[in-house]
Amino acid sequence: MIKAVLFDMDGLIFDTEHLYKTSWQFAANEQGLDLTDALYQHFIGVPDAACEQMLLQHFGSDADLSRFQQHRDRHFHHLRQQGIAYKSGFAELFNHLRQKQMRCALVTSSALAEVKHNFEGSDYLKQFERIVTAEDVDKGKPDPECYLLACQRLLLSPEYCIVLEDSNNGMQAALDAGCQAVMIPDLLVPSIEVKRRASYIFEQLEQVIAVL
Q: Is 207:185 a contact under the CB 8 Å cutoff?
């Protein structure tokens, strides 16, 4: 029996992943670095600090991290000011869950300030019973710590929680935590391992309604 639904945020609730990708590649290009789509795929669903370390490992001394961060953040905030859209089907799914009085939590690799900014102007955020952000964990996705913490805060065993994710790293975190997990892919196609282990893989969020 499912007792709670745990939502990822970027790429699942909000159409932000392509903004992040554009900004990361913009900042890399500013330094003459080629941050390819293939390399960026490893960053999806992973906290920024870990992604920055991967960036340094890949480019070595050619990368100036402080300069990169400044250009990336400035570019991203410029794009975000133009508005961030909710992903198709989120409103329908979330309203369905509230009508069923299903417990909901938000589990994201983003910082709390980013969460509040994204949800500004709506009442969705206050309807999540628990929120886990980057500040709450020592290890980000694909480590299961964030989902184990969410289950702990909900006082539920992981098998009673179903996670909704758009990335392979997020799916690995959810599944390794012992949760059921559904992938609604955004920028990434499901990996072979995720295809094998996922409870479901859907194209749109509203399809989740049928299994809850």
A: no
pTM, two decimals, is 0.87
Closest CA to 71 of 108, 31, 120, 115: 31
- For residue 205, how many other CB atoms are within 10 A of its CB? 23
Q: Which residue has the tokens 């309807």?
A: 127
With a CB cutoff of 8 Å and minimum separation 6, the contacts of 63 are 28, 31, 33, 55, 56
Q: State the burial class of residue 190 (Cβ atoms within 10 Å of its Cβ: 0-12, 13-18, 19+).
A: middle
pLDDT at 44: 87
List, for the chain, all residue ranges whose pLDDT scores fall below the cut of 50: none
Query: Which tens digit of pLDDT belongs to each residue from 56-88?
Result: 999 999 999 999 999 999 999 898 888 789 999
The CB-based long-range contact list for 181-188 (8 Å cut-off, 24+ gap) reads 182/208, 182/211, 184/12, 184/208, 186/11, 186/12, 186/17, 186/44, 186/87, 187/11, 187/17, 187/18, 187/21, 187/41, 187/44, 188/41, 188/44
pLDDT of residue 63: 94
